[in-house]
Amino acid sequence: LPLFERLERRIVDxxxxxxxxxxxxxxxxxxxxxxxxxxxxSGMKTVGELxxxxxxxLPFVLQSAEVMKAAVAYLEPHMEASDAAGKGRIVLATxxxxxxxxxxxLVDIILSNNGYEVINLGIKQxxxxxxxxxxxxxxxxxxxxxxxxxxxxxxxENLEELNSRGVSGDFPVMLGGAALTxxxxxNDLTEVYDGEVSYxxxxxxxxHLMDTIMA
Length: 215
Ligand code: B1M
Known about the structure:
Bound molecules: CO-5-methoxybenzimidazolylcobamide
Shape: globular
Strand order of the largest sheet: 2-1-3-4-5
Radius of gyration: 18 Å
């Protein structure tokens, strides 16, 4: 297979051996971020479709996720970081009950490489922990990620909790993840939250939103 098809195939097949050599070769022609966005993510999309239609079992999805994570970790040091530093601080977490973290970690990488300080709390984080970190670190915003449909409900509950703790004015909230839609966030969740809440389709929109929040 040609290089980029082979790389995409590696994600789908969960094939780790020789990954770094292929990534090195790919980086001679395109920047690391394009490799992630144009090649690796379309492999993950295929994985999602295969799993969703019952053609792929969970352990294989996990293997694909491991290869995806290894690839992103390998590419990250090669990414261009902006000189701007200290643009703002965000607490980032995958919500309670949800283990998906590849997208959240991409958001972390993009924000960190563009001058933001990211406090990445990891997966399955209850809102109490997220809020505690946000207060403790004097964060400028809270970011929540979640890929399960039930996580969209958790996000709504989290926003209600922030309201009832009286901190909605302190923390603009950015939400993202495959199960969310812009309409749900912009219609239903803005109704719920007394502060600012916005939807990011991908990590770059997340960066753009942070720039807007900090402007
Ligand atoms: Co899961 N899983 N999974 N899974 N998994 C999905 C989400 C699913 C859609 C697959 C499917 O059925 N087609 C489905 C959810 C269905 C639903 O809720 N209706 C599903 C399921 C069912 C499950 C389990 C329940 C399976 C089971 O146990 N029976 C289980 C969940 C356990 C739990 O959470 N409690 C489970 C487990 C797993 C693995 C562990 C095997 C693995 C995760 C490994 C890991 O993350 N460390 C996994 C994977 C890999 C997937 C799919 C295939 C791929 C997800 C991914 O990494 N995509 C996924 C299919 C899909 O999403 N269509 C699926 C790549 C990633 C870069 O995209 O995270 O969307 P994403 O991030 C994007 C944007 O959304 C955005 O930026 C990123 C791009 O730039 N973004 C943000 C994300 N967060 C953001 C936050 C922001 C801003 C932007 O600001 C704060």
